[in-house]
Amino acid sequence: MNSDLKKFIIVLPMVLSVILTFSFSFYYDFKFYRNSDEPVVNGKINYSAEAFDNDKIIALDGDWAKTDDIYNNTVSFPECLRFTSKSPVTYEVNITVPEARQFYSVLIPAIYSRSALYINNTLQYNNLNMGKDYVYSPQKISTIYAKTTSINVKLIVCNDEGYFPGKLSSFYFGKSDAVSNRSFLMNFSDILLSAISIITFLYYIIAFIFDREDKGNLYMALLCLVVALKILINNPTFMYYDFPFMSFKSGAMHYVAFFYLLIISYLVYVRHFLKKYLVSFFYYTLLITSFAAMILVLFLPLSKYKYLDIVLAITVTITNVLVLIGTIRAIKNKIPFSRTFLLSSSFVLVTSFVDIFDYYTDYLSKRYFTVGFILFIIIQSFSYIIHNTQLYNQETALTVSLSDTLNDLKREESNFLSSHLRAHFLFNALNIISGYSVFEPDKAKEITTALTVYIKQLFEHDNLNELTSLKNEIDLLHAFGFIEEERFPNLNIEYNIPEDIPDIQVPSLILQPLLENAVNHGIRKKSAKEKGTVTITLKKANGFVNFSVRDDGAGCDENIIKQALEEPADGTYNSLFQIQSRLKKLYNQEIIYMSVPDIGTVISFKIPCS
Fold this sequence. Notes:
Elements: H1 3-32, E1 44-46, E2 57-59, E3 62-67, E4 72-77, E5 89-96, E6 102-108, E7 114-119, E8 122-126, E9 140-146, E10 150-158, E11 172-175, H2 176-210, H3 215-234, H4 236-242, H5 248-274, H6 280-299, H7 305-332, H8 338-361, H9 368-407, H10 411-418, H11 423-439, H12 441-459, E12 467-469, H13 470-487, E13 491-496, E14 505-507, H14 512-523, E15 532-541, E16 544-551, H15 558-565, H16 575-587, E17 592-596, E18 600-608
Parallel strand pairs: 1-5, 13-15
Antiparallel strand pairs: 2-11, 3-4, 3-5, 5-10, 6-9, 6-11, 7-8, 7-10, 12-14, 15-16, 16-18, 17-18
Helix pairs in contact: 1-8, 2-3, 2-9, 3-5, 3-9, 5-6, 5-7, 6-7, 7-8, 8-9, 9-11, 11-12, 12-13, 13-14
């Protein structure tokens, strides 16, 4: 593949995400945020020639009449509210409608200042006399019966705090059904997005319960939960009615803090996926910055929150650049599903930049950022499902193949080998490989190599009486031990084996069963949190090679080992008896054992050097 094509493959997801994001943005603005056909001029708007139906609503944007203690004039609405002084200011618009004696409604947005609203001189609400910590009015609908064709809307605002004062979106006017539908769609979209996040959160929590070794499921679950809560906190209607006693300052604290929490949870998941391809210095710097900002939210006055917004914009920008660079590095190193990750993270990148641009130009609320995270979660979830389906199919095919091969072995060999190549061991080894294959492919490759060596050594012998080199037996032992250590984090295997391994022939599968017994009957019977060590020692002395397998596990009554070494009456031979019988037959040697409950077990034997 030439370099131009590689660059095209990397850039294509970015281009697609930009197109989709701006298409969604255009549709969203056109469908729900379109201005009226004729804006407000000099505090008046004439719709006497318009036919209002159940679908038509208008945004009351334009030049509202403004009255304060000093002078009267007109200002651009709604942008003017962000510059409102601390003294009361009145904004007014007169609407001429085509029909009198009709019901009309006004959709009043959330207003983040002390305010009062009159429609045709009828008070709709008034919180001008409340304390400045409660200067908040949620989105609501006011329905009026117009006796004439003239409707007057008067808003009185008094800003006390400096953090997004005033209102952040337009007033909407129309027939009652049209305005109600508009309000429903605004809230329904948030309910739908939060529901998607919560369902995905439950999915990943269940996945983590069944596979606790894959921390990626836990990190994605955390991200889904934070996104769901952020969507609900962003909706002022939910915040007001679900937490009616929460002050505006407390709501603003949650609003800002959850933005930083969203960045933290995103970084943690990305770190798990990209690992070494993410620059550690910037990763930890961003985490510390985000945690520090969350703490500052608790102590800063609202008037200083604007500085946290600047820090947030910088943090988001650096985070996106960091993730982009790390993902491209992962693609170049052919990490599985890295291109899919680039596509999903591109939505976060583009939507965050759109929100930053909107916030510092039109002073709008951040509505695209969480949508970008929803798309990220959905794409990553589909990728996760596809990946696990592929792994399951591969594991099933490999297991069936190995099972068929085992069935072709002679009965005696089959009985002995199956005790070391049981299906659960294969499934566990394959699960470990699948868990590492996405996030640590090098580790997955090491385990795959060890499993290959282990299986190859098992099947290279025609019968149990065949001799093999001591080196081959040690290779098999290392392969099996490596897989067991990956399976059981509390297991440690130490090898006291000299580099110059004696060049002698030993019975095949003479050491590995002893290691397996030490793990299963010794270490695993200890507490799951308690560490355990198996020590394998090989020494050459007095014309013999001495072998010992020592564990500090649960230990047992020595009579149990004695019974295992005796020939069973039912003809079912265990691995310990098989080893003992071959040692007697070939070398006239026996297994020496010692075991103490709660202390551990030692199994040893010796083989002549010639």
